[in-house]
UniProtKB/TrEMBL annotation:
This is CMP/dCMP-type deaminase domain-containing protein. Pfam families: dCMP_cyt_deam_1. Residues 242-431 form the CMP/dCMP-type deaminase domain. Keywords: Hydrolase, Metal-binding, Zinc. InterPro entries: APOBEC/CMP_deaminase_Zn-bd (IPR016192), CMP_dCMP_dom (IPR002125), Cytidine_deaminase-like (IPR016193), dCMP_deaminase-rel (IPR015517), P-loop_NTPase (IPR027417). It comes from Paracraurococcus lichenis. Belongs to the cytidine and deoxycytidylate deaminase family.
Length: 524
């Protein structure tokens, strides 16, 4: 009778687990139309090639064309601006007929086909336009998936699209058509339409493509002079983890604090966080959007009885959003007035359809009835309660400020605002064009201009945030392994015994579990 099998002298299960991690990398791109996302994708591939890493482009346009060839051919024959509107509608229909992640599913099929050649694969997906697409890719590829957000100021995007479609710069009809096209791209207004603005918030890193680039295939010298190239190189260094002592910039650290403040909000609409830095970079105050509490501060703060701390939050006080409720009441009031004036609205179903359309109109963009102090206001008020000057400060906020916050920011003497998520309901730029500007060459902070006695006009700069997203911090900056030699103290080329930055398992955790158990039992 055979005796029990002996286990091998060394099981080395950790080495087995490390070897089972996937070498694949999937990079998604998201950005508004006109931002030059495709050019950024091609530059990214060039930088990957420089690092000795071949990549495969996976383009949404191509996978949609294969999914609906007849509709695509008909749209391609139309005039340029109408063509791209038709292409948007094809994407919406494909999502409606399948699900909102349809385009990402088609991309996954392309990646699967590309892998048939064998070997490690790096895929660059151009471009994602719905949050469900990000959700599917992250569900499938886990930490092997990275999302790069491409920002570009609206005026630059508009000018690029006018040139692209061959319109005269002073053609008002063309300008309106392009503006409408841009709006549909950011939020099509339908559950199955494009929602670039919502998708953007899930990025791991942000770069600003506003600076012109002659061509993505330009000579290396021109490519290296393009400001975006350095940001993309930093992104790849974080993705590849090949620079162990790469640390957050001041802006990245500030936005991470804003993100942490955001998590304290129990707002039923969205969580927003803000942090105010002084002129010397010192953290002055933080804020989140939450209902104010008598005595100073917000609900959720303090060491009082837990019920008192929670009492006035919207989820505890009725369990509904007052701003949404007031907007709905306004819509009903407008419809009632129309009926009083003899306007026939039809049956109850027709009236309900009109109400839905009004709620998606500018009437549904009102933010004036919220009970919450917004995050930016909370940061400014918190500084004021402590007697800290806000003059010359820099405000980092997770979402573009609304027009209510914008006027307080200007009045508080803040020089600059950096934001991540767009906020399509904000009228800050149109209402305060005299005191707010987007990034522009030659801008001087108002506090500096006043100190130097420079003549106006002086404006607060609202600029999109560039750098690592807060969601990336743990993966990118956590020191999760030894970075120096224990004997000599010298910096190692790569961290040893790192365990946090894990890629997905090629075979799945159950297969790896079975292999380790078999080896432990002496069977493998």
């Amino acid at each position: 009778m055979a005796g029990p099998r002996k286990r091998p002298e060394r099981i080395e299960a950790l080495a087995l687990a490390r070897a089972a991690q996937s070498p694949d990398l999937v990079i998604g791109l998201v950005g508004a139309v006109g931002a030059g996302v495709s050019s950024v994708g091609r530059v990214l591939q060039r930088l990957l090639a420089r690092a000795g890493c071949a990549s495969v482009p996976v383009r949404a346009r191509e996978v949609m064309q294969r999914a609906a060839p007849g509709d695509w051919a008909a749209a391609a024959a139309d005039l340029p601006i109408r063509r791209f509107r038709a292409l948007q509608e094809i994407g919406s229909r494909l999502r409606q007929d399948n699900d909102n992640a349809f385009v990402a599913a088609a991309m996954i099929a392309e990646i699967h086909r590309a892998r048939a050649a064998g070997g490690p694969l790096v895929a660059v997906c151009d471009a994602l336009r719905h949050p469900a697409e990000v959700q599917l890719l992250r569900s499938v590829y886990g930490e092997a998936f990275w999302l790069l957000g491409v920002v570009c100021d609206e005026r630059t995007r508009h000018a690029r699209l006018m040139r692209k479609y061959g319109f005269a710069p002073d053609d008002p009809d063309a300008a309106r058509a392009v503006q409408e096209f841009m709006g549909r791209d950011e939020d099509g207004g339908l559950d199955y339409g494009q929602k670039v603005a919502d998708t953007f918030r899930y990025a791991d890193f942000y770069c600003d493509s506003s600076a012109p680039l002659p061509d993505a295939g330009c000579p290396d010298a021109e490519l290296d002079a393009w400001p975006v190239t350095a940001d993309l190189a930093r992104f790849l260094a974080l993705v590849r983890a090949d620079r162990p002592m790469l640390r957050p910039t001041e802006a990245e650290q500030a936005m991470y604090h804003a993100y942490a403040a955001r998590l304290g909000s129990a707002c039923l609409s969205r969580q927003v966080g803000a942090v105010l830095l002084g002129p010397d970079g010192q953290l002055l105050s933080t804020g989140c959007n939450e209902v104010p509490r008598a005595g100073g501060g917000l609900y959720g703060e303090g060491t009082d009885d837990p019920e008192e701390v929670e009492r006035g939050r919207c989820h505890a006080l009725g369990g509904y959003c007052r701003n949404t409720d007031e907007r709905n009441r306004l819509v009903d009031h407008v419809l009632d007035l129309l009926e009083e004036q003899g306007v026939a609205l039809g049956d109850a179903g027709t009236r309900a359809g009109l109400a839905r359309r009004l709620r998606r109109s500018r009437l549904g963009h009102l933010v004036e009835f919220s009970r919450s102090v917004h995050a930016e206001m909370d940061a400014l008020i918190s500084a004021a309660r402590r007697g800290v000057s806000t003059i010359g400060g820099r405000l980092f906020v997770t979402t573009f400020p609304c027009h209510n916050c914008a006027r307080h920011i200007v009045a508080a003497g803040v020089d600059e605002v950096q934001f991540i998520e767009p906020f399509l309901k904000s009228k800050a730029l149109s209402l305060h064009a005299d005191s707010i500007t987007l990034p522009r060459e030659g801008w001087v902070p108002p506090s500096v201009a006043r100190r130097l006695g420079q003549a106006g006009p002086q404006r607060v700069c609202f600029r999109p945030y560039v750098g690592a997203a807060p969601r990336l911090f743990r993966r990118a900056f956590l020191k999760d392994g030894e970075v120096k030699d224990a004997m000599s103290g010298r910096l190692l080329d790569m961290p040893q015994d790192a365990f946090e930055n894990r890629r997905p398992l090629v075979e799945g955790y159950r297969a790896l579990e079975a292999r380790i158990a078999a080896r432990f039992a002496g069977e493998g």
